[in-house]
Amino acid sequence: MDRQSLKARACAAIDAAGDEIIGLGERIFAQPELGFKEERTAGLVADAFAGLGLPYRSGLALTGLRADLAGGGAAAGAPRLAILGELDSLVCPGHPYADPVTGAAHSCGHNAQVAAMIGVATGLVRSGAAAALGGGVAFLAVPAEEYVEIEYRERLRREGRIRFLGGKQEFARLGLLDDIDLAMMCHLGNRAPGAKVALGGSCNGFIGKLVRFRGREAHAAGAPEAGVNALAAAQVALAALNAQRDTFRDEDHVRVHPIITKGGDLVNIVPADVRMETYVRARTVEAIMDANVKVNRAMRAGAMALGAEVEIVELPGYLPQIQDAAFSEVFRRNAAAVVGEGEIARAGHASHSGDLGDVTHIMPAIQPSIGAVDGAFHSKDFRIVDKELAYLGAAKMMAMTAIDLLADGAEAARSVVAGFRPPFTRAGYLAFWDGLLQGGQ
Length: 441
Ligand SMILES: [Zn+2]
Ligand SMILES: [Zn+2]
Prior knowledge:
With about 450 residues, the protein is an alpha/beta fold. It folds into 2 domains: about 300 residues, Zn peptidases (Aminopeptidase), CATH 3.40.630.10; about 110 residues, 2-Layer Sandwich (Alpha-Beta Plaits), CATH 3.30.70.360. Helices cover about 40% and strands about 20% of the residues. It is built from 12 helices and 21 strands. The strands form 5 sheets. It has a 6-stranded mixed beta sheet with strand order 1-2-6-3-7-19, with helices on both faces. Strands 8, 9, 17, 20 and 21 form a 5-stranded mixed beta sheet that branches. Helix 1 crosses helix 4, helix 2 runs antiparallel to helix 4 and helix 9 runs antiparallel to helix 11. The longest helix has about 35 residues. The mean pLDDT is about 95. One zinc ion (ZN) binds next to loops.
């Protein structure tokens, strides 16, 4: 069967399962869970894999899953394409679907990624298109893309349960990407007139940081002179950081946005234990490290001014994201078949980050943006308003791209892989963060 017929059948199978796929996306939206805690979401994904008859593994990087679909025409050593969906949410207590206990809410739309990933699997399996593919497809449900609850995850690290704070990094560490040659996922974006799909582009990388100021407790009113105020030390540190923001170059897109996660114990005690979390983000690793030196200098300055102590814990963050151009072009043709050429834009540089950035350093990978959202990302106003496009459109674009890459002996996938120049070997990547952090103190 030719590729056009395979694509038509896969899209028809996705449409036929439309209520099921949208229903899954909406169910996940209504039961948000934070990273490395996505137990119920993982259960829904396991049920969906089982329903399609796909063998899968679960409990990967604590809560992740992987199912494999063998291409009917795949020879030994044939390329394998991964379709990814992220399991996690954020915390946005004001969101109408926020979990009443944890405050978790899907205000980044990862629920749609999981539904679209299951949509691709549905399309390839139920249409029978998989039989014609000259390569395999792996479906990866990945935990913890949002880099949050840093203190909690640092504890998991110390307990040896994770080494990296992002799920895709953990998948890489566990060898779950070793047999993958290319990776694809979609992320939702805001609806914008004239551009339902944004392709390519890059985004910031970052390192994570925990900062702890230690002072000395004393009666806050009776004897403040006997104490050392760790909150005041943190305030001076933030002022020192803010004082050098104009030394960050515009082209480096530096973003440093600390929060204080503990500001003291009781109001009538001089704060002696104050904690911050921050990222230090920028467009390049060099710019991240340059900004990092300044941030650390500011933290130490705050402690020095008050006579407090400061402990800075550097944590592996995410690498800048660079999407593969040849791979994006294959996706573009299929996106055009769904939304029309006039609805496709080219993305520029974005200052946010994602752990697909790490994947883009070891294999060709793409993450097109699907404009289906109203309201700000990471806010209580986030709404998926074009459900058809978010859940089914994205699934069709990815299923057709998978067919283009893997039909006809997987010739197109081989060509994309051959043209990719990885900044890292797989082994070199795993050693990278350790070396970077040791050198950046
Ligand atoms: Zn997000
Ligand atoms: Zn996201």
